[in-house]
Amino acid sequence: MLQAAFWGAFAGSSILLGAILGMFKQLSKLTTGLIMSFGTGVLIGAASFELLIESVSKGGLLPTTIGFLSGSIIFTVSELIISHRGGHERKRSNKRKGKSSGLAILIGTIIDAIPESVIIGVSLLEHGTVSYLMVIAVFISNFPEGLSSTIGLKRDGYQNKTLLMMWSIIVLLASISSLLGYLFLNNASPNVTAFISSFAAGGIIAMIITTMVPEAFEDGGPIVGFISSLGLVCSLILSHI
């Protein structure tokens, strides 16, 4: 049980590390773009190799399909709502956000973090040990989000104390979500587990295409395609270790 909370917090902690770096040092757009593109490849691999394939194996094609499309729809609808308040730019450091977007950015980040963290807890139930692929994927993808959002919010007048509180809340929620995923899905049927895993995969894929890919290409240029491919290959290798 404590393992679930620990690994959820660990995966989420990179958003705080990225935020702290963003408070005191601004990385180049190219560096941020390359980090984000690698994280994109790893996350796509984790969603595909770890979540979808496992879901089909455990619960069948129908629960997996319904869960995946549901996750994608829920994320897309949520993204449409928070986009009007600036939350869609939570991964961006080069856009003006305005102080009113701070809460939307926080909510948008929570929408990203919770499904990922729940699956980390579920992986303990399915395998007896945490999915290191999922932990690594979430850790890598969270870092540029904390970094770029913090840089942008600092430009709009947010104080370091406020920013630390915001991202600490995300880490805490990631830990709690992973723990709850472990506790409440302990006796769940294979169909339910398959639905939840694929639901998270749908949300993750929608998030990647909506927020990470455009930002990575804008900052890193055409090379990000190759870097994303490297991330995907790393996911493939990790899924077979």
From TrEMBL:
Superkingdom of origin organism: Bacteria
UniProt signal peptide: none
Parts of the chain that traverse the membrane: 6-24, 31-49, 61-82, 103-125, 163-185, 191-213, 220-238
Primary localisation category: membrane
Keyword Transmembrane carried by entry: yes
Localization terms from the record: Cell membrane
Record keywords: Cell membrane, Membrane, Transmembrane, Transmembrane helix, Zinc
Bilayer topology: Multi-pass membrane protein
Similarity comment: Belongs to the ZIP transporter (TC 2.A.5) family.
Protein name: ZIP family zinc transporter
Species of provenance: Metabacillus niabensis
